[in-house]
Amino acid sequence: MTVTDALMAFTFAATLLTLTPGLDTALILRTSTVEGTRKAIQAQMGINAGCLAWATMLAFGLGALLAVSELAYNLLKWCGAAYLAWLGAQMLLRPRQKMGEADISRGTQNWFMRGFFGNLLNPKVGIFYVSFLPQFIPTGQSLVLWTFGLVMIHVVIGTLWSALLIGSTRRLSGILQREKVVKWLDRTTGAVFLLFAAKLAVSHRPG
Asked: Best exposed site among 21, 70, 83, 147 by fewest CB in 10 Å?
């Protein structure tokens, strides 16, 4: 995979993940609608911080382990592929009918921390970074630099999406909560997850 191919593929995958209604989208919509623009921006900054925390863990923890252990790499590869295949199948065959907002209105009143912990504790974000992101790092490139670079692409996409949500809260909120839209996004994402699960299953450890 060339540098250009890697960047384009990751940007597409990250955009799809961002646009799929989930906890982050629900938090931004709910906060913007109920609490106002300022607090919605704080929540988005927290979400961005959560993404960078995932990047740090991947770049300095998991990356070092994968670099020295083929067993660890293969274990993660097969676990990640199996989980992605399961998650993709669930989204493809059993798409949601509406966007849930469970548990986003409870907890700390600090909206930055709500966004941060909501992202950090979201298993879908973790699986995306741990299973997806390494696939987009070309052989021979710096794991740390590419990890943070790709995550920053995701952060920029997420920030732009949140700005659009905040600026058009009522109209977009109605669209995103439509059953057909939620089902379409879930099924599309599920199909992409299955494709990446297959790609991950046949991948080899760099070097």
From this structure: 70
